[in-house]
């Protein structure tokens, strides 16, 4: 069922125009930067977006300038960790073609991030999420219990009703769409 959901949403994402992607991404960035929970955070774990994810690079730059930015690095075997990033120059194409910190970047050894920004294929108002199928974020979030989990997605990624879930799937605390921040 989750595989079918991924395919349906991926098809919807492909129909979004470049202008719609830019506008919705800008709205997501604006909502987050104006949000008091974000403003109070000191350490934020994010992700460097692929072309089918909200383009949050301006948000990441703001975090680097004002807070501590952590970005994920795939370790293999379904695991990832986060590394503090001071500049995008340390990013390299890594697992699955994702931009991730190079080997020279040190893993984050501090406490859990205040906020973890989470990509996904689809989200609902119950905090349920379907990722890309590897379980990397679910495994990381399961051990990062003191963080606030924030799912980010375009309007076509938001669905009404339940999303098929497994026992290891981790629910988001908030969902950010182009029009609102929804507390679960």
List its salient traits:
single chain, about 180 residues, alpha/beta, Rossmann fold, two-stranded antiparallel ribbon, 5 helices, about 25% strand, globular
Write the layout of secondary structure elements.
Elements: H1 2-15, H2 18-34, H3 36-40, E1 43-45, H4 57-66, E2 68-76, E3 79-84, E4 91-93, E5 99-101, E6 115-118, E7 122-123, E8 129-130, H5 136-143, E9 148-152, E10 174-176, E11 181-183
Parallel strand pairs: 1-2, 1-6, 6-9, 9-10
Antiparallel strand pairs: 2-3, 4-5, 7-8, 10-11
- Cα shape: globular
Average per-residue pLDDT, rounded, comes to: 92
> Which CATH C-level class is it?
Alpha Beta
Q: What's the story with the biggest beta sheet?
A: 7 strands, mixed
Radius of gyration: 15 Å
Q: In the CATH hierarchy, what is the superfamily?
A: NagB/RpiA/CoA transferase-like
Quick overview of this protein structure:
This protein is of the alpha/beta class.
Question: What features would you describe in this structure?
Answer:
The protein has 184 residues and is of the alpha/beta class. The strands form three sheets. It has a seven-stranded mixed beta sheet, with helices on both faces. It has a single domain (2-183), classed as Rossmann fold (3-Layer(aba) Sandwich). A hairpin with a 2-residue loop joins strand 2 (68-76) and strand 3. It is built from five helices and eleven strands; from the N terminus they run H-H-H-E-H-E-E-E-E-E-E-E-H-E-E-E. The radius of gyration is 15 Å and the shape is globular.
């Amino acid at each position: 069922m989750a595989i079918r959901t991924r395919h349906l949403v991926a098809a919807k994402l492909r129909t979004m125009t470049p202008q719609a992607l830019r506008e919705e991404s800008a709205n997501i960035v604006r909502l987050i930067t104006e949000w008091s929970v974000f403003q109070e955070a000191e350490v934020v774990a994010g992700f460097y977006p692929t072309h089918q994810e909200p383009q949050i690079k301006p948000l990441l730059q703001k975090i680097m300038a004002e807070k501590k930015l952590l970005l994920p690095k795939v370790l293999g075997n379904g695991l990832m960790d986060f590394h503090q990033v001071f500049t995008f120059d340390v990013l390299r194409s890594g697992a699955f073609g994702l931009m991730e910190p190079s080997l020279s970047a040190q893993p984050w050894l501090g406490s859990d991030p205040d906020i973890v920004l989470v990509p996904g294929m689809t989200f609902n108002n119950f905090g349920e999420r379907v990722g890309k199928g590897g379980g990397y974020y679910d495994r990381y979030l399961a051990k990062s219990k003191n963080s606030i989990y924030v799912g980010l997605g375009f309007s076509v990624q938001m669905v009404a009703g339940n999303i098929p879930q497994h026992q290891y799937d981790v629910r988001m605390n908030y969902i950010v769409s182009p029009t609102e921040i929804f507390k679960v």
